[in-house]
Amino acid sequence: MKFAKLAVLATAIAATPIAANAQDVGATVYGNDDAPIGTVAANEGGVVTVDTGKHSAPLPANLLAEREGNWTVNATKAQIDGMMDAQVAAANQARDAALVEGAAVVSADGMPAGTVYTIDDADTAIVQSEAGIITLTRESFTVDPSGRLMALYSAEQLAANTVAVPEGAEILTPAQAAAKEAEMAAAEEGEAAAGASE
């Protein structure tokens, strides 16, 4: 008799769906409107990173609650994405203000990486150090918590991609070089046209 009761209890437990832990990567997180916000991409140090499809939103783990077998947060996907849009815009504004010629640059691991030599209209910057130059896109920079302009690469990665510059060589981004070539070609055409009219 006891065995039969235990078997029934075990069957009941097995039949009960166990909600995925919000800490489990891949678990779906729902909004207060019952629509999915996204899936858990990581959980470290009390912060659950939720991939909304647009952003990787870091949410404090204590904001997640279990409701009817699902993990929820008291916000909608639109609100989470809107909050992240504002944070990204603010971070980009801070980066753009810091990304100017002559600005000191540090690597992602906090090492001095050189200074911004030039930046062009195509959002390409050249960082110059004693070892040479490296060309990076605007998106390769951010501002660290101390307010320093930071490249999103380690010192080792930056060093591996730094190119030595011969003494006296002109340093230009690809867009600047193309503009100069076009300017020189136009000047040559103008000289040729002037010579032909004489």
Structure description:
The protein is of the alpha+beta class and 198 residues long. It has four helices and twelve strands, in the order αββββββαββββββαα. The chain has helices spanning 2-15, 77-98, 155-160, 174-197, and strands spanning 28-30, 36-44, 47-51, 56-60, 65-67, 70-72, 104-106, 112-119, 124-129, 132-137, 141-143, 149-151. The strands form two sheets. A six-stranded mixed β-sheet has the order 4-3-2-1-6-5. β9 (124-129) and β10 (132-137) form a beta hairpin. The longest helix has 24 residues, at 174-197.
Structural class: alpha+beta
Oligomer: single chain
Main sheet summary: 6 strands, mixed
Alpha-carbon distance between the two ends: 117 Å
Give the helix level as a range of percent. Answer: 25-40%
Number of strands: 12
Number of helices: 4
Strand order of the largest sheet: 4-3-2-1-6-5
Radius of gyration: 28 Å
Mean pLDDT reading: 85
What overall geometry do the principal axes of the alpha carbons give? elongated
Low-confidence stretches: 1-20
Q: Can you lay out the helices and strands and say which pair or pack?
A:
Blueprint: H1 2-15, E1 28-30, E2 36-44, E3 47-51, E4 56-60, E5 65-67, E6 70-72, H2 77-98, E7 104-106, E8 112-119, E9 124-129, E10 132-137, E11 141-143, E12 149-151, H3 155-160, H4 174-197
Parallel strand pairs: 1-6, 7-12
Antiparallel strand pairs: 1-2, 2-3, 3-4, 5-6, 7-8, 8-9, 9-10, 11-12
Keyphrases for this structure?
198 residues, six-stranded mixed beta sheet, 12 strands, disordered N terminus
Quick take:
The protein has 198 residues and is α+β, with helices and mostly antiparallel strands. 33% of the residues lie in helices and 29% in strands.
